Every structure is written in C-alpha cells, then in structure tokens.
Input
Amino acid sequence: MSDRDGSRRLVVGGAAVTPDGLHVNSVCGPDDETVYFTATDERDPTERHLWRYDPGQGLSRCSAEPGVHDGAAAGGTAVVLSQTKGGTAVAVAWRDGTRAAIASLEAEPLLKPRITWLTLGPRKLRAALLLPSWHRQGTRLPVLLSPYGGPAMQRVVRVRDAWFCEDQWFAEQGFAVLVTDGRGTPGRGPQWSKTVFGDTLSAPLDDQVDALDAVCASIPDLDRGRVGIHGWSYGGALAAIAVIRRPDVFHAAVSGAAPHDQRLYDTHWRERFLGLPQQNPEGYDRSSTVTEAASLTRPLLLIHGMADDNVVVAHTLRMSAALLAAGRPHQVLPLSGATHMPADLGSQSLWHEFAFLASSLGVARPSAELRSRPGMRPGTQNGCVASRVAGTTHPFWM
Output
C-alpha cells in the first residue's frame, strides 16, 4: 500500500495497479500471483468491497451487494465475508467458477436499525440518522450524536451491525440519533485521513457540529436545545471535548473508555498522528481532554473498565482528578473487572447512560406500552443492544 497522487493504492512490483479514487483499506494476502485486498471507492465511502488483482487478468471486484466485505484466499479457494443490511454472510469460491454459501447462525436482533443515509454540508459528510419507530412528524425529539470519528474505523457503512442496533435502541427511548464520519476517518483518501495530523480532536469536532447544523436545518423536529453526545474509546474523547469546548451546542456527554491524556496512550499509535511529544507538546495538549477539564460547564459522565489494558483506567482517573481540582461536577461509572469492551455489563451500563442523558436533557421516559415492545429491553440473548457484547464490531485501537 502506498499513498500516491491523492489515492491510497495497491503497489505490485513498484507499480500502482489501482485507479484514482479507489482507496485500499487492507491487503488480505496473495494466492499464487493474485493479490486480494479491500478498498473503498471515494464516490461512496459507505461501502467497502473485496477486490483481486491478477497480473494477467487485471483488477476485478469480488463482492457486489452494498456493505462491508472482507476475505482471504489460498490454493485456489477464496472466502468472502460480507456484512450488509441483512446481516452476515460467508461465501466460498473456487477457480473453476463454482461457489457455495456457508450458513450463518448469527442471531437476529429483536430491534433492527431504521437508517436514513445522509450526505451533509460542504464537505459531504456521510451520516446516518435513526429515529424512533413511533415518531410522527411534528413531535420534537432531542438529538443524540453517536460518533466514533477516529482513524481506526468508519461507522457510517451500509451494514446492520451491533453499533447501529444500539443506536436504534437509544432512538426507541426517544432520541434522534445522528452518526457522522468526519475528517480523520478512513475510506476517503490520504488527505482526508491526514487532516488530523498534529491535532486529533479539532477537525473531527467541527465536523460533528457541521453535521448537526445541517441535519437540524433540514428536519425541524430535531430539538437543538437538547443535544447530547456519547462515544466509546476515541469516540469517548470526542464526546468529552465536544461538551467542554462547545457547551453552546452540546448539553450533556457520556465519555466511555476515552484516552483523555495522549501522553499515556500507545506510543506507536500516538506518534503516528502527533509526532514526538517533545517536538509537538502543543498538539498533545490540544488532543488531550484532560488539559481542558477546567472549562467543563455541562453534565459529563465518565465510564471506564477497571481492567482495560488498551486505554488504561488511569486516563479516566486523571480526567476525574482534573475535574475535581477545578471544582467541576461530573459522574464516574467504574466497571469492575471490565476490559476495553465490557461484554458482560453492556445492558446495565446502557440503562445507566440513558438515565444520565434523560435526566440531563429532560427526556421523558417512553410509555409502558412502548417499553413492553420487543427489543426495548436490553440484555436478552438476541436483543438489539449487542454492541458491548459483540466486541468484534468495535475497533481495538483507540
């Protein structure tokens, strides 16, 4: 992989073999002289497909349906793993052209995402909007932003994943949930990804605000006077800095497992985006929420797994200490025994998040009739709130 002429390209023998605007995400591996890789076409970054390059046959795409596709190949056999709006599917293809499907035993969610796909603002931000199934035009809804926003993954992709199931659950509780991929996320080329070099929070925060402005301008039922934001890992840092820097826009935030102090995080990952701390101290400060803790004026809930070995709990402890020293009220929810993805505590921590956001934003709890509907109760084995259980759908890196 190499960044050349504005595109992230596949390079074979020193020559780029992929065209302008097709951005390689990962190289899956070779099968004899054929190379398999995943890539996103910048014309629609909500899809990622599996491709193959053969010196004799050239470039071809191995997947068709909108979604996120991956794969592997060896000995003339290719396996394609597809995540789409219908769920997960696996197919096997052989050199002679025959194909077969591997049955998926994935549980069906009780509450499926109802997504409106959007392109917002002058930067053409890709976004997804989820409304309650019971919403009727003219009913005002508080807004909950649900970003990841970091370099490890895109959230706005055409799949039915656990993240979107969780977003729909929050929507059923009475929120309009907005998910936006801003600058710094993958899939839209090197220039887009590298915008955040030296300052990993400012541009992504601006894009969240721009997306909110655009969607509220087009949908009058969204209540700009009641806006919350929540996120996990990088998304947790983005949520915290949003409520600190822009209290005029965001009225409450939930920050989960966030890297609040960039000097505490993984050296390779931080130096890739911020350089050396002794050479870019201002960048490390701008990208650390702990340095701006004294500016907090809105409700903030910090959540962290005490056994997190990726973003260690010292981040949240240091952030809480800075808030206390500045006399800034906040809440902390420690998850005993939980790692970066607290699988066994997902449903109860979600209820805690909802109670915090509902209290902070003045959101009325749904009626008993709505609460009794399938999917409204997290914690069932095949319920919709699966994102903290299905850890593979989350980024490992911050």
Residues 377-398 have pLDDT under 50 and may be disordered.
